[in-house]
Amino acid sequence: MKINETVALVSGANRGIGKAFVEALYSAGAERIYATARSIDSLTDLVAIDPQRIIPIALDVTKPDQIAAVVQQTQGVNLLINNAGVLGSGGFLQIIAM
Fold first, then answer.
1. Which three-class secondary structure state does DSSP give residue 58?
2. How many domains, the chain?
3. E-assigned strand segments in the chain
4. Which of 8, 13, 57, 64 could form a disulfide with 35 if both were Cys (CB 3.0 to 4.6 A apart)?
């Protein structure tokens, strides 16, 4: 896949590995990158890199209605990086013990 022809969507793009994915896609020449996070305000610095190519979208992956809305807003996506996650109450170690 040629990244310079890519329209990508990265969930959980506001920090950590999600932010790094967006930056790497941008550096590799992705045509458009939809960066998603629960709070669109948390994407401000990332979008400032290039507001024409990095498009912020609010998305809470625990809300099916928001997922459906994002699908409608992001036609043409040919690369999905599903980085967002949800950690249930009780913490990581409790989930592993189950």
1. strand
2. 1
3. 7-11, 32-37, 54-58, 79-82
4. 13
Burial of 22 (0-12, 13-18, 19+ CB in 10 A): buried
For 65, phi then psi, to 5°, come to -65, -35
The answer to whether the CB of 8 falls within 8 A of the CB of 77 is yes
Helices (H) then strands (E): counts for the chain: 4, 4
Are 43 and 35 in contact by the 8 Å Cβ rule? The answer is: yes
Range of the domain at 39: 3-97
What would the pLDDT profile of 16-60 be if each residue is shown by its tens digit? 999 999 999 999 999 999 999 999 999 999 999 999 999 999 999
Q: Is the dihedral of CA 92, 9, 44, 73 positive or negative?
A: negative
Tell me the CATH number at 49: 3.40.50.720
**In whole angstroms, how far apart are CA 77 and each of 10, 12, 30, 45, 74?**
10, 16, 11, 23, 6
